[in-house]
Amino acid sequence: MSEFTKNVKYVSCGCALPEVKPADTTANTDSIIELIGRASHEKIGILLFPELAVTGYTCGDLFFQRELQEDTHAALSRIAGATAGTDMLVCIGAPLEDRGRLYNCAVIIQDGSIIGVVPKRYLPDNREYYEKRWFTEGGTGPDITVAGVSVPFGTDLLFRDGADPSIIVGSEICEDLWAPAPPSQDMAAAGAVIILNPSASNETIGKASYRRDLITQQSARLDCAYLYASSGFGESTTDLVFGGDAIIAENGRILARSQRFSMEPGITKAQIDPQLLLHDRQMQSSYRDYEAARAFRFIPCSITVSDTIERSIDPAPFVPADSAERSERCLEITSIQATGLASRLRHIGNAPMVIGVSGGLDSTLALLVCAQAAQMLGMEPEKIYAVTMPGFGTTDRTYTNAVSLIHKLGATFHEIPIGPAASSHLKDIGHDIEIRNEVYENAQARERTQVLMDLANETGGIVVGTGDLSELALGWATYNGDHMSMYGVNSGVPKTLVRYLVDWYADRGDEELAELLHDILDTPVSPELLPPENGEIAQKTEDLVGPYDLHDFYLFHFLRSGFSPEKIFALAVRAFEGTYDDKTIARWLETFYRRFFSQQFKRSCLPDGPKVGSVTLSPRGDWRMPSDASSRDYMARAAKIRRSVEEGAECI
Predict the structure, then answer these.
(1) Which end of the chain has fewer surrounding CB within 10 Å, N or C?
(2) DSSP string, 164-222
(3) Which of 242, 292, 273 lies closest to 7 in space, CA to CA?
(4) Are 45 and 248 in contact, with CB atoms under 8 Å apart?
């Protein structure tokens, strides 16, 4: 474990699908033990088998046979022995008798011992299911004897890691998930972050997608990891076919899924991030308010964790990788932006919009949103007062693109150069115009804002802000300059997503608009506050504050996931392998923390603007932070990472 991964904690989980022979516990046990050995070799920490995997789910009235019941105990003893000397937590389905009742159980095994038995709470007894013919609905009760050993028994069992008590595992069985009040609901409220479901769900048309959605939604509702392993090849096909569906979901996202209808035993595996789940749990007030004081017994166990990052890390967490999903997301985001703006305009009597257009990405997106809002309201595009305000750093390329876009969208065009006014202002305050510092730059930004605000008064309109979420995170805005507006349509959109939104608009426009938007997309991001060099942009934002794809990655995992600097760095190294070296990642991570903390005062007085995603910085909603919060600890840790990388430390 390196110093960078000491705060990285993953649990490797697997869903095993053995070949089953109904009522042949010896053959089934051989297949189960082979998969346990394979999982141990692959360093899987939690391994789930299907419902009644020891005997097979389709034994029917053979479940009543004493011989099969006794063979089950012998099989579980062998399976437990196969786990000796390992920390793997194994959950496997088996029928067990207790005091004249037969139960459909999830048997929890670790290091050679059976440590708990959870009975199925809800037994299906309709259509193709007849479980109440054989089994008794589970409940809480005394211990049960398994293979001659007394073991904790009941639906009130949870399994808690001794080294990290926050990692708690619960189990429900098949139909329990389909019930109106799944047991996992109470388990999660009592602290379970990983739910295991040994299942036997047959295949019918449309059932697989319904099953997938149910598991995905349950993992999202409970902020948990949900492991589901359903019976597969070898179960009786007298009336039903079992396809072998193994799914691992985490907080509403499928991490891994098996290939159904396979005739070979196999393991579907994925890494679970308990730190992410616990962070989300802490943020859910419903967990704090929920009456979770139900009596659960906590069984001590050992959950193997790893600091090795094996799961895929998305370098663009704000942008869906799938093109179809991305297009759908773009439609939804622009609809949220336009609807928010249209609603505000209608509230004040369909007032005109006043917007500054620079020829850059942000103002382009904001102008496109203004045009969409006008269309929604049946408003003439001329009621959009689009202003280009050439200054000391404006280039011909951005000026031409701004003018062309305004005319293309049919907005009312204004050109108001700010050079003379900014020069006069700098002279008034005694600033040498040849000294091109932040006074020189910010005077231009504030002059532009003054023009827009006064024009809004003149036209009876509102100023539509163009600044995006990434700029707000870094404080890359002039206080009371471009920082201020009357409604900020881009305030919830990160820079990496702005690009895709503009490209999405380009795909839906005519050829002329598409060509114009693509040229804007190809233009370097710049505030254009310093004079051009040989006619080209001299001031490139990402040269000054760092690459936006890195900063958006940091922002997402800092706010959305609550991760430490060390974990964010380790994830970034993995995500941007081949794109940025470790020194670059460490350098800009330090910049991110410095700017994020020091610039909170700008975010504390943001204008209204629509939330579009799970990460936003509105001081009235999602992010409440004192403007004078200390960054010392974060900066110290980020600086330590940078120094260690410069000294050649191994990162992951």
Answers:
(1) N
(2) -TT-EEEE--THHHHSSS-HHHHHHHTT--EEEEEE-----TTHHHHHHHHHHHHHHHT
(3) 273
(4) no
CB 140 within 8 A of CB 117: no
Inter-residue contact 158 to 190 (CB < 8 Å): yes
Distance of CA 460 to the CA centre of its chain: 42
Flag whether pLDDT at 122 surpasses 80.
Answer: yes
Mind listing the pLDDT tens digit for each residue in 632-652? 999 999 999 999 999 887 665
Domain ranges across the chain: 11-301, 323-646
* Spatial distance between the Cα atoms of 331 and 13, rounded to a whole number of angstroms: 36
DSSP 240-266: ------EEEEETTEEEEE--TT-SS-E
CA distances from 524 to 98, 220, 432, 474, 538 (A): 72, 39, 28, 18, 10
Could you identify the residue written with the tokens 């098996």?
258
Q: What is the pLDDT of residue 291?
A: 62
For the domain bounded by 323-646, which CATH number is listed? Answer: 3.40.50.620
Q: Are 199 and 247 in contact (CB under 8 A)?
A: no
Q: Could you give the CA distance from residue 56 to residue 527 in angstroms, rounded to a whole number?
A: 67
Structure tokens at 1: 């474990």
What DSSP element (H or E) covers 48? strand 46-48
Map residue 119 onto helix, strand or coil: strand
Q: What one-letter code names the amino acid at 585?
A: I
Catalogue the active-site residues.
51, 120, 174
Helix axes 548-555, 582-598, angle to 10 degrees: 60
Q: Write the CA distances from 191 to 171, 274, 293, 294, integer angstroms.
A: 13, 12, 11, 11
Q: Give every CB contact of residue 297 below 8 A, 6+ residues apart in sequence.
A: 152, 154, 156, 157, 158
Question: Measured between alpha carbons, how far is residue 193 from residues 28, 223, 251, 454, 552 in Å?
Answer: 30, 7, 10, 55, 27
pLDDT digits (tens, 9 = 90+) for 434-492: 999 999 999 999 999 999 999 999 999 999 999 999 999 999 999 999 999 999 999 99
pTM above 0.85, yes or no: yes
DSSP per-residue codes, 448-471? HHHHHHHHHHHHT-EEEE---HHH
**pLDDT, tens digit, for every residue of 402-418?**
999 999 999 999 999 99
62 DSSP 8-state letter:
G
What's the CA gap between 430 and 427, in Å, rounded?
5
Q: What is the mean pLDDT of residues 602-630?
A: 94
Cβ atoms < 10 Å from Cβ of 469: 27
Residues 6+ apart with CB under 8 A from 624: none
Whether 1 has a pLDDT exceeding 50, the answer reads: no
Contact 202, 128 (CB under 8 A): yes
Amino acid at 42: E
Mean pLDDT over 123-151 rounds to 90
